[in-house]
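Two records follow; treat each independently.
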Amino acid sequence: MPVYEYEHLEEPCERGLVFEETQYMNDLPLTTCPDCGRPVRKVFGAPRYLKGQKSNAELKDLGFTKLVRRDDGIYENVTARDGESKIMDRRKPETFPHLHKTIQD
């Protein structure tokens, strides 16, 4: 789930002037602080990113699919799971990764 930043519009509480809140993407933005009830607004901070590179095994464990181009329209699925083809050919849909198995809320 994404983490959003909120800023107190009045005096801050114990959470501080700016605090983070984990919410679903389709949740409405907060208008009041969950702790003190004072008004807040959503602020846009720098996007989070992964520090350092992850190995193919770590990417697979995190639910990512990594395709490495080998030829025109031919890719190697270096994070292939059970039942998936190790080689993906754009002309053969049966070789595409099973994304519906890895995409979750």
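The next record belongs to a different protein.
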Amino acid sequence: MELKELYQEIILDHGKNPRNKGRCNEFNSDAEGYNPLCGDKVHIYLKVGKNKEVQDSSFEGEGCAISLASASILTEIIKGRDYNVAKKIIEDFLNMIKNEAKITINSLSDEQKTTLMSLSGVKQFPMRVKCATMAWHTFDSALEGKK
């Protein structure tokens, strides 16, 4: 299987069968994102522990397959991470999308890196970049306690 086909398969799978969809139990931080250009909406819910670790994460939303897949991938990869690691993953992802950089964080498995990289192709379509990054910016706002 070609890498491009694998990436498409990952996005389609997460888009059709999003993980962590719905409100997580006992969430204590949340934020909403909206892209008025295409109508994508996302609401991120986090259960953040005393030491700022992301104990649970989920989302509700509607939008295109890229938007839903991105939110699904995000909540799956960040769940269980401490604050600094979560921030680094978010930073790496946004840098990859905007600047064609590689994922550098070492605490991710090769499979997780491949899953993140599946969204790297959106940079070729500037109108789709917001679809892929909206959930990540919203997650960062929720992690920082901003709405």
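Discussion point: The longest strand covers residues 40-48. How would you locate this feature using only the token line?
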